[in-house]
Write a structure and sequence with these properties.
The complex is a heterodimer. By secondary structure, chain A is mainly alpha-helical. Chain A contains 16 helices and no strands. In chain A, helix 6 runs antiparallel to helix 7 and helix 7 packs antiparallel against helix 8. Chain A is flat. The two termini of chain A are 42 Å apart. The longest helix of chain B is centred in the middle third of the chain and has 34 residues. Chain B is globular. Chain B has 11 helices and no strands. The two termini of chain B are 24 Å apart. The relative contact order of chain B is 0.16. In chain B, helix 3 crosses helix 6 and helix 4 packs across helix 6. By secondary structure, chain B is an all-alpha fold. Classes of the chains: A mainly alpha, B mainly alpha. Chains A and B meet through helix 1, helix 2, helix 6, helix 8 and helix 10 of A and helix 1, helix 3, helix 7 and helix 11 of B.
Chain lengths: 292, 281
């Protein structure tokens, strides 16, 4: 059934949906109508036209792949600069920064933005080399940049993040840590509720069982090390990796069957989560399963 | 875009799970869509055919939940299932009509349905009044209301989290924003599809109240964020669940011999996040 085929492709993750949508646009945008007409006029064999069109992945298309959320590099830069301003503004409100501290943080954040755009320029240059394997190169070069944007530029490992610990006083750092912890916790709890609600779309639960499930997840799932676009997926992934005997007692047979259907969708996301910084190394992945 | 693509994108976009509301304008469609109506448009029939298995799945899982809540006997359960079939058909038709209207004239189409579960559960709630005691029927209604409340809470805290990602709200701002959304709750906010997306778009929000919470810097960012957005799609979960078959209910007298299943100490599917083939996209 067409519906099923499309649905299957489109629903694994929203990310995939977005990628497919971009891909579909690329197909139509990569071959302007006039070009096809001209090709017919000079009677270029159809096969050649198709091959040519397939390889015409332009710089613009590379940008669309990387900057899916913002549309263009310019819009992405504006958004990143706004995020930096907001983060410094928050620190200023909470920690009463001195002008010098503020300046240092601004510089480091701008450094992160510059570093990202340098990576982007390098990747695009590589991508535009002749004789490239278009599709593979698109994925290899553009996806890490896309994931970085989705995850955030100012997280762990960024110049901005390092600068905070080097610039703030001990007292300010305590205040900052408190803010971050509370934020992470509130997002974590929101994602838990979203996970349960999304499961209930497929398998409604009686109220008491829902409450038990939420309590279980609150106790068992670890908050993400950093927050970003994959927080929700990370929770599903964690749940899918838990020993069966920990989770199954919460559900009856039919509910368990539906839950396992969700697990099939999310259990293979480890590589993406690793790339996005949610998982650091194999030992961490093992910890995910055993520490809880 | 052909009809299948439209259907799929409509329904599967963010079919990562997706959810249901409890009362929506789509109920207006249900009122209009009598199952006995002659279908004067073959396109409606085609949509209905494609939607039927999906609604059947919702119907079965909803009946299962009803069984857990109301504890009917097998006979009662089967009668409720039979009595709610017309409502199931009406719900499917309502959905088909609204999807068709959307396809034909997206800009002027009535509010799109986003909560198929509500249509199905509403039909079951009505059907079980005939068969079960008023107390049992009330139990189910109460449970549906609790589900609606849980969902509303989930949407609110996730809208706050989404705003927080963009505005870096303080703890107090988050708390106040949640309160504002609670007080100014509108069904148009109940688009959980938006919550799965990293894209900074929001449903219609009470901006005047929200702006009063924000700093100037936050206001300038908030002003630029698209709102009053209908993201399209619905909560059928096509794609995510399209291969999921819901088994018939098992009753004690017909249950096969209960073989003890030894619990595994291993997860169902191991994934360390290491892929020899590289990142999966």
């Amino acid at each position: 059934m067409k519906l099923r085929m499309f649905g299957r492709m489109l629903a694994i993750t929203f990310l995939t949906v977005a990628f497919l949508a971009i891909g579909s646009r690329e197909t139509s945008l990569g071959q302007p109508p006039g070009q096809v007409k001209d090709a017919k006029a000079v009677q270029i064999p159809q096969v050649v036209v198709k091959q040519k069109a397939a390889r015409e992945v332009t710089e613009e298309q590379f940008d669309r792949r990387v900057f899916q959320q913002d549309g263009t590099p310019k819009a992405a830069r504006q958004r990143l600069e706004s995020l930096l301003v907001l983060q410094i503004d928050e620190l200023e409100r909470a920690c009463l920064l001195t002008p010098a501290q503020k300046q240092k943080l601004q510089l480091s954040g701008r450094g992160d933005i510059k570093r990202f755009f340098d990576r982007y320029e390098d990747a695009k240059e590589q991508f535009l080399q002749p004789n490239r394997q278009i599709t593979q190169e698109m994925v290899r070069l553009a996806n890490p940049l896309y994931i970085t944007l989705q995850t955030g530029l100012f997280n762990n490992g960024s110049l901005f993040h390092k600068s905070i610990s080097l610039t703030l006083t001990a007292e300010q750092l305590i205040q900052h840590k408190d803010i971050i912890q509370k934020r992470m916790q509130s997002r974590h709890q929101a994602n838990i509720e979203l996970l349960v609600t999304s499961f209930e779309q497929a398998m409604p639960l009686p109220d008491l069982q829902r409450q038990k499930f939420i309590t279980f997840l609150t106790h068992e799932l670890k908050p993400a090390r950093q927050t970003g676009s994959y927080d929700y997926h990370y929770l599903w992934w964690q749940l899918s990796q838990m020993p069966v005997e920990r989770v199954k007692p919460l559900f009856d047979e039919l509910q368990w069957k539906v839950l396992n259907h969700f697990f099939l969708q999310y259990s293979g996301m480890g590589a993406i989560l690793r790339q996005a910084g949610y998982l650091v190394n194999e030992a961490d992945a093992e910890d995910e399963k055993h520490v809880r | 875009m052909d009809r299948s693509s439209k259907l799929s994108i409509w329904a599967a976009a963010l079919g990562l799970a997706t959810l249901g509301v409890v009362h929506l304008p789509v109920l207006d469609f249900a009122a209009l869509a009598s199952p006995d109506d002659e279908h004067d448009d073959p396109a409606v029939d085609q949509y209905m055919q494609e939607l039927a298995p999906l609604f059947q799945r919702l119907y079965r899982t909803e009946l299962h939940c009803m069984r857990l809540v109301c504890q009917p006997t097998k006979t009662q359960f089967e009668k409720i299932a039979a009595d709610s079939q017309p409502a199931l058909k009406a719900a499917t038709r309502a959905f088909a009509l609204s999807m068709l209207a959307d396809r034909r004239d997206h800009m002027n189409a009535p509010s799109e349905p986003s909560n198929p579960n509500a249509l199905v559960s509403d039909g079951i709630a009505k059907a079980l009044q005939i068969t079960l005691s008023p107390q049992q029927a009330q139990k189910y209604r109460t449970d549906l209301n609790q589900r609606a409340q849980a969902r509303k809470h989930a949407v609110i805290v996730n809208l706050v989290a989404k705003a927080d990602r963009l505005l870096f709200l303080s703890e107090e701002q988050r708390r106040k924003l949640a309160k504002i959304l609670e007080v100014h709750w509108d069904e148009s906010m109940n688009q959980t599809r938006l919550l799965f997306s990293g894209i900074p778009v929001f449903p219609r929000m009470p901006d005047a109240e929200i702006n009063s919470l924000l700093t100037d810097v936050q206001k300038s960012v908030w002003r630029r964020i698209p709102k009053d957005t209908t993201f399209g799609g619905n909560d059928l979960g096509i794609g995510m669940l399209d291969e999921l078959e819901i088994d018939d209910e098992v009753w004690p007298e017909v249950r096969p011999s209960q073989t003890a299943v030894q619990p595994s100490t291993k997860p169902m599917v191991k994934d360390t996040g290491i892929s020899k083939a590289g990142p999966k996209r």
